[in-house]
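Appendix B, Record 12. Input sequence as logged:
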Amino acid sequence: MKLNSLINIASQFKPDRQILEVQEFGNGNINKTFRVSLDASEEYYFILQRINIQVFSQPELVMQNMRVFCDRAPENLQKINLEPDRRWEIPSILLTQKGQEYWRDREGGFWRAIRFIEGQTYDIITNKQQAKEVGYGLGLFHTLLSNIPCEELADTLEGFHILPRYLEQYDRILEKTSPSTTAEIKYALQFVENRRHWATILEDAKQLGKLPLRPIHGDPKVNNVMMDASTGQAIAMIDLDTIKPGLVHYDIGDCLRSGCNLLGEETENWDEVSFNLDLCQAILQGYFSMAQSFLTKHDYDYLYDGISAIAFELGLRFFSDYLAGNVYFKVKYPEHNLNRAIVQFKLVESIEQQESIIRNLIQECLSDN
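Logged structural output:
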C-alpha cells in the first residue's frame, strides 16, 4: 500500500497531530500492522492495523471484546498489589474523528488504532528470567480477565482452539487433495494418524464440567508479551484480537509451546527441536505466582494435556493449510507451512518423551507458590 494512502488512513485517528511516517511493524501472520510516527511532544507513535476480515469475519465483535477488556482491566489492576518497581500497561483504543472505534476504507478494509506501548518483544526466550517474566505476564493478564463473565464476550473465532474440529477440517482437506509422498509429508500424515485417539481430551473434560470456559487471550505466544527494555520485566499483553471464551489451558499451553522451543517456530533443524524443561519450569513459576487464585484442581490435572494438545493443534493447522494451498497463514515459499508443521510435531514428540518430568514440574511449581 502506498505511503500517501496509509497517511490518509492514519489521519482518520489523529487529526490534531502531523503524521511524519508510517512503517510496517512486527511480524504477525494474520493482520497488517504499522507504526505511525507523530510530530508531538508526547505519544510519539500509535499502532495502526488492518484487521484481516477473511479470518475475523465480524471484526466489530473483535473490537467489542477488546473494549470490554480495556474497560474492566484498569479497575481490576488497582486491586492487585504489584511490586513497587513494576508497571503494567493496558492497551487503549484510539477513536476516529467521528468518535468510532474503527474506520472502513472504500474497499471495505477494516482499520483500527491502538495506543503505542514502549517496549520490546522476543520471538525466542534466551534465559530463565525472561521465561519467568513471560509466565508472570500471562498470569497477571488472566487475573485481569478472570472476573469478566464469558457472556459479555463474543466468540469471534468459532471453533478456534477446538482440536477435534481442526481434525475434521484436516480430514475434509485430505479427501480433496493428493499429497505427494515425500518423506516429510509421509511423516506428517503418520504423525497425525497416530494421535487421533487423544485429540478430544480437553474438549471431553469441558463437556464433563471439569474445565470451565473462561476469558482467554487466545494467542499468548512469547512475542505477544511486551517487555520493558531496561528492566526486562513483562509490562503488557498485546495482540488482543483473539480475546474470547475458552479454556485457560489453550493459553498456558500456547505460551509454553512457543516459549520452550529454543530453536523457534521457523527452524529447519527438525531433529534438534526439543521442549526445554528449565524454561518450562520458569514460565510456570512466573504464571503461578500471579494466577493461582482462580485455578482449580482439575485445571492443574489437565495442564500437561494442554501443552501437548496445543502444539499438536498448531502443527495440524500448518499442515492442513499446506495441503489446502497455503490460504490462511502467510508463507515465504511453498513448503513453508509444511516445515512449520514438522517443527510443532517434533516439539510434541519431545513433550511426550518428557511427560512424567513435566507433570512433576507442574506440581513442584505449585508447591513453590
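The longest strand covers residues 32-39.
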